[in-house]
Write a structure and sequence with these properties.
heterodimer, A: mainly alpha, Helix Hairpins, 2 domains, B: 218 residues, mainly alpha, two-stranded antiparallel sheet, 8 helices, elongated
């Protein structure tokens, strides 16, 4: 295991150094924002090299922190470049204007719910993002917040069942799976709402 | 078990979560708590501009929503620093530190001013790239020693963490703790961000003090 780990570590560090050099050379603010995403990936790579289920547990918070900072930075970019009032309309393509996005989104959401857990949440979120992107931004921001709050509560309940009533672990597993499905889905749909428009 | 900041008199182990209270961490925690209370109680400073060529001046009002957002960010920053100073788990430590970074970006960016926004953006880039050495150090510590708990890392039975990894951890904290530099660059200490911008300075001071302890004991 050790030589493999060392080789992997060297590769990831080289990738990180390349990304950092690119960040130093690049002067355009928007391009630097995009390069930051590239810088994030080696940090996830180092964690993934652990290769245990601990790595999986550590990647999630790492990923969330990265996405949160990226979203915050893009909001600041929109603000500082004065792009705030430039509304974003849905894509002007005939197929998109028809019912196709709705059908594809429903398919993705149903498939994601069947998968459940983190992967399912990602797919449901993808469906919602796709729908929002093709339909402009008439989204209900507070609805997403409510869903995120409920999923958080479900997650905590599952945690306490694990801690205090370990004999009902199956219930806790199912609750946690549903909770993380909703959590990831709402988090991903938040990405779709980041148009810098008015959210209320 | 001899630790740098005095012997821990209380260790809470709840699943993976590990919190320990030693005289050092409690002192830092109380610091963060007191300044968070200050941020809750204080009202925003009013910026006064003097019109050039006359004796007129006008005071800028801070709107209620902007004030609320800035106060919220200051409180969140205080909570994140409190977490960062008492946690005994290396990965939670790095997470709390990146949370401090995000909150500092929020505190700086809450002021709607071109220069301040520019500084917030540059700081955000630094803070985001600092998560690479930060998480990298935590992951390499877990890979080489097999544990993330600082209580375990104190013991002589666990292998020592190499100097490079410690340097990476400090580098990451330095990146996240750069906020006062950028806030000073945008002249935020004089009026636009006061008094909430003080949380930037305080939180970076606290995480610097804490990382010294972490690096020396692991």
């Amino acid at each position: 295991m050790w030589p493999q780990y060392s080789i992997g570590l060297v590769l990831v560090l080289v990738a990180g150094i390349v990304a950092f050099v690119a960040l130093v050379i690049e002067k355009d603010d928007l391009h630097r924002l995009l390069l930051l995403d590239l810088v994030e990936i080696p940090s996830l790579g180092i964690i993934a090299l652990l290769g245990t289920d601990l790595a999986e547990a550590l990647i999630l918070p790492g990923l969330v922190v990265g996405i949160a900072e990226l979203l915050a930075l893009s909001q600041i970019y929109i603000q500082k470049e004065g792009l705030k009032d430039r509304g974003v309309k849905g894509l002007d393509i005939e197929v998109i204007q028809a019912d196709a996005p709705l059908i594809i989104s429903i398919l993705l959401i149903v498939y994601g719910i069947i998968l459940s857990g983190f992967t399912g949440g990602g797919i449901v979120g993808l469906g919602v993002v796709f729908y929002i992107m093709s339909r402009g931004h008439r989204e209900r921001f507070e609805l997403l917040e409510i869903a995120a709050g409920i999923s958080w509560a479900v997650w905590i309940v599952a945690f306490f069942i694990f801690m205090f009533f370990p004999e009902y672990w199956l219930t806790a597993v199912f609750l946690a799976a549903v909770g993380i499905l909703m959590k990831v889905a709402t988090k991903m749909s938040l990405i779709g709402t980041m148009w810098g428009g008015h959210h209320d | 078990m001899i630790s740098l900041g005095g012997n821990p008199f209380y260790i809470l182990e709840f699943g993976d979560e590990l919190v320990y209270l030693s005289p050092y961490t409690v002192t830092l925690f109380l610091f963060a708590l007191v300044f968070t209370l200050f941020a809750i109680l204080s009202r925003p400073e009013r910026q006064v501009d003097i019109a050039f060529g006359g004796d007129a001046y006008y005071a800028k009002e801070t709107t209620l929503t902007e004030m609320r957002f800035r106060r919220f960010m200051a409180i969140a920053c205080g909570l994140a620093s409190m977490g960062a100073v008492v946690t005994g788990d290396i990965f939670n430590f790095t997470l709390f530190i990146s949370l401090v970074g995000i909150c500092n970006v929020g505190i700086v960016a809450a002021v709607k001013n071109q220069h301040v926004q520019e500084a917030a953006y540059q700081y955000g880039i630094v803070a985001l790239s600092a998560t690479v050495p930060l998480f990298g150090a935590a992951a390499i510590i877990a890979a080489t020693t097999g544990t993330l708990s600082m209580i375990e890392l104190w013991k002589d039975t666990t292998p020592a963490v190499t100097l490079v990894v410690r340097a990476l951890l400090v580098l990451g904290v330095m990146g996240e703790g750069m906020a006062p530099f950028y806030a000073a660059k945008a002249e935020m200490f004089r009026a636009p961000g006061a008094p909430y911008v003080i949380m930037c300075s305080l939180s970076s001071l606290l995480i610097f003090l804490r990382v010294i302890e972490v690096v020396l004991v692991i």
